[in-house]
Design a protein that fits this description.
phage-related protein like fold; alpha+beta; four-stranded mixed β-sheet
Length: 360
């Protein structure tokens, strides 16, 4: 009738059809945000991503290398050799849940910006949960902890050999008296990187063969001083601290740098750093992030609250298996990899006219 407006929402079926439009948008936004997680250049790069399948837990293990090939005479049988099992570890899933509540009024009045913003924040909360948790695992491991609590759940920080990820007493499965260290007190400089790296390149397998580690990544937290140290060490083809402008920085171009915003939240007053062999990390079962089920949404109408409710549910767990992919510096109380009394290669700059370089 003229002069009488028809309500956009009349309840029942019409309301369901309208919300159906938003349902598709909500799911699309969440999927897009979660998909972008794989491309993030941050702590997700420090875990091998694995898809969990039917079982509630995933078993990880390793085998030793073989002994050397031996010269043999014509028609002589080849030496029979067998692999030996290394340390093993199981990682069991954890379930993570949260609700997203959308008021009926937001649907009725087509508050698209509010609904889509809530969907983005819901997906961001899931991703942030994972980032914080992964940073917590590394930060706590750098403090030498064996476990750390997430809520009431104890998260295991040990590797398959039973030692914390960063430890001075990693044993060999075949030679328990032989232990190796991947934790040092060395500061982060252009000079000390070489010694920490060399210590890692000397890591041995259970049969005492060198593993050929190729460390290519430096990991630090979000701290201004550590950023300056890292990029002063590897970020320039020359040395800012060298009197010779033509001095060559042999670290330049060799390293990727990952700055994790959550790492130093969990290392107390210390600012440790560590090197990673990204190839070994991905090829071996080193640090693993097992996703059994991505964040999945189911929804229902809550008549008591007069709202639409999305129930988000994901299943994953992260842990450490093989420690050899990483070696740390800057950990108080640990022995240094750098020789005592090392004379730094970098030479302090000589200022010829102090007036040209005011300090304030």
């Amino acid at each position: 009738m003229p002069g009488i407006s028809t309500p956009l929402i009349t309840g029942g079926k019409s309301e369901g059809i309208l919300f159906g439009r938003y349902d598709a948008a909500i799911r699309s936004i969440v999927d897009q945000k979660l998909g972008a997680e794989d491309n993030e250049e941050n702590i997700f790069k420090l875990f091998k991503r694995i898809k969990g399948k039917g079982d509630a837990e995933v078993a990880f293990g390793s085998v030793s290398s073989l002994d050397d090939f031996e010269p043999t005479a014509p028609l002589e049988d080849a030496n029979a050799d067998e692999f030996s099992a290394g340390f093993a570890k199981k990682i069991e899933f954890l379930k993570y849940t949260k609700k997203l509540v959308i008021a009926s009024e937001d649907v009725e009045f087509e508050h698209t910006h509010i609904i889509t913003s809530k969907a983005r924040q819901f997906a961001n909360a899931y991703i942030t949960t994972r980032k914080k948790q992964l940073g917590l695992l590394y930060g706590s491991a750098l403090q030498g902890q064996s476990t750390v609590n997430v809520g009431t759940t104890a998260m295991d920080l040990t590797t398959a050999d039973g030692q914390p990820l960063f430890s001075a007493a990693h044993p060999s499965k075949l030679d328990p008296a032989f232990v190796q260290s991947n934790v040092g007190s060395d500061d982060l400089t252009m000079d000390t990187i070489d010694y920490v790296e060399a210590a890692g390149q000397n890591f041995e397998g259970d049969r005492h063969n060198l593993l050929g580690m190729n460390f290519d990544t430096i990991v630090i937290g979000n701290d201004g001083g550590m950023k300056r140290k890292a990029f002063a060490a590897v970020g320039s083809p020359g040395s800012f601290a060298a009197d010779n402008r033509d001095a060559f920085n042999w670290q330049y171009g060799r390293w990727n740098v990952i700055i994790d915003p959550y790492l130093y939240r969990y290392t107390g007053a210390t600012k440790p750093w560590f090197l990673v062999d990204s190839t070994y990390l991905q090829e071996a079962d080193a640090a693993v992030l097992v996703d059994w089920k991505p964040l999945t949404l189911t929804n229902k109408r809550d008549e008591d609250k007069d709202a639409y409710v999305y129930f988000g549910r994901g299943m994953y767990r992260a842990g450490f298996v093989d420690w050899r992919y990483a070696i740390a510096g800057g950990v108080p109380g640990a022995a240094a990899f750098t020789p005592a009394g090392l004379i730094p290669v970098s030479i302090p700059v000589t200022v010829t006219n102090a007036a040209d370089f005011p300090t304030a």
